Amino acid sequence: MIVRVGKIMREQELPSNEKSKKILLVEDDDDMRDILGFWLEGEGYEVISASNGWEAIHTARDVRPDAMILDLLMPIVDGFQACRYVRHDPELRYLPVIMFSAVFIDAEERQMGLDVGADEFIAKTSGFNTLLASLDEVLKKADKLERPEVDEKMASLVRAEIESQAEFLSRKH
Description:
Elements (H helix, E strand, L loop, with lengths): L21 E5 L3 H13 L3 E5 L2 H11 L3 E4 L8 H9 L9 E5 L5 H9 L4 E4 L4 H14 L10 H21 L1
Parallel strand pairs: 1-2, 1-3, 3-4, 4-5
Helix pairs in contact: 2-3, 3-6
């Protein structure tokens, strides 16, 4: 018997033939990461966590998630830089990215997030159902996403800049 509480269905109650999608949840606030992770797992997603953008880049390379939910203000490498790096990495550039932030919610910052390559930009105040709907949408479109060709010279410069900053800031933490 499957028991539902609101929209939440536990992963073990999903049909065994339904492969869960891997979501990389990048959030520096431990409590927020735990809550979002719990909710996403309740919807049947496999959740992998990272606490900053630099950790997210390495984790994405290792586990190949189906999508990334990315906070913006984080230590070492912020969400804008992490997204920019992902879009300039030939192995990760097709990864759907949703920016999810409590801080940047006006039209200008939203556009800035989309300009660095986010597929969606959601304010945390929009709530979990909005995030879930956006996640479902980007996952449906994932195979059809078109990305501009990567200029390898520019990509190399972008990656080097962010790697240098991350190395420097990692030493301070």
